[in-house]
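Q: What structure does this chain adopt?
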Amino acid sequence: REREREREREMQVVSLNSTRSLNATASRTSRLGYRRLRGSRAALASDVFLPLVLRTQLSHHGNLSSSSSSSSSSSKCYSSSPSQAETQTAPTEQKELGVRVRFAPSPTGNLHVGGARTALYNYLYAEKFKNLAAETSSGGGGGASFVLRVEDTDKARSTKESEDAVLRDLKWLGLHWDEGPFRQSERGDLYKARAEELLEKNFAYKCFCTDEEITEMKEKAADEGKPPIYSGKWAHATEEECNEELAKGKTYAVRFRVPKDELVTIDDSIRGEVTWNTNTLGDFIIMRSDGSPVYNFCVAVDDADMQMTHVVRAEEHLPNTLRQVLIYNALGLKPPKFAHCSLILAPDRSKLSKRHGATSVGEFKEEGYLSEALMNYLALLGWNDGTEQEMFSKDDLIEKFSLERITKSAAIFDKQKLNWMNSQYIRQLETDALAKMLVDLWVEKGFLADAEAADTSVIMGKFVEIFQEALITLNQSIDEFDTLLDYPLSSTLESKKAKKCIEGGLFDVAKYIVDSYFISGELKELAENNPEAFKDWMKAAGKEMGKKGKDLFLPMRICMTGCMQGPDVGEQVFLVNKAESIIKSDTFVTFEERMNVLKKAVEDNN
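A:
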């Protein structure tokens, strides 16, 4: 009793001296102390039971050792945030540069834009601190790590194909990891060892409840208007009672023993202080009866084992944090710093889903978006640098990114804004770089027959010159070129818009073109061998017919292209002739076929 009174006096002194370093909740509970769980057959190691904030304070003052005896005082609140005392004792550079973050996808589908943003924020944070380390030390780049961990504990839904797709999409975005990929399915021994540790320390217990019993408990709780919290049937079973069940060949799950009526607080980098009461949570399973670990247990064990300093993830994981912090503290491990990002919503503020269009990185890649544009756009879904700037290179993002600038409010995925941004990135590309991208794309889509043909580079150079400013996505290039290859003369002549042009003498121009192609052969020679001279030929034709301006150029456009608007007529004629041998399109109408269609239209008009 005398030793216990002495320990209480020591803790009171520490609490008074450390008021500034405790959060608001902890400061109201200066009587923090050791606690012991009901049903425990022996006092447990005090450094495991002690709330994290106070444990850190005591260790700083030299008042805590692994052999300390337990006290009868009960704790009411603890936090996952590091104390001021701990922060002040570490060298500034070491504290700021020793950053380890992770992205932990589940391979049960494609990489969603929400997951991609999470990966991006973790990547940017790690790269930022790598650069800081390189600037402040000769070691260079050793101040941070971006770890990739595949959370594949869901055996029924996890697939190798999905994992490969996720890794492929991360690489396409330029998010290269430093360590991994580590797979939870390959770390079973670690989880079993940690579960055994919790069993030995009485932080967990064996539960022999059947599925039917669990269902009955949930139904009873629902009937009584209570949350479906486990009743604790096996929480206080004796060793003999457990052995009796084992002798019958029954299997058991391992449940974590949740402390009663305690407050768990985290200092979230985005959301500030978040507090839960443990009474809202029943004893939860950490190992299933088939021996497989449960998600929250794996996450806590892995983050601790991999020494994660920061966990940046989506807001939907916030409820999981309570379980994970309890596991950290029970194992005597230091929780990381948490940052929970708001969700990405559709324009109607509903959850972003397939009905809103593309939602995965792979889909946007297939639709012809540039990885740099998608990265830039995703970064702005919940973060800004405090200015009006919208266009950021990867290096810009790395330099300016910070967790403090991530907003609490939900981000809205605006496809039109992404389209605009992608078009800006396409405009900024060097013409040769864009031409190569389009050649690769056209070959992949089966639109271009021969990437090495002499006319390919000629066609692509001219196409980029004409259309680069107009492209929104790379895939649009195929649609644009396909439109040039078509010849919708009949539908155009039947339209109301063409009526005035027809009345103004369109068929006079059409007859001149047909005669020049089939009788004199001048236009045929020009189209096949000297398309650059088309403008000169058109001007000479105007003089000969006594036409100029709109009375000449619009009829010429309709007769040559079948459309009332589009790129320069001469350039279209050039592309159509060059494309004949190397472009594969169902809509392709060659120049000679166009002239035959035009000839028939002239004859029908007469």
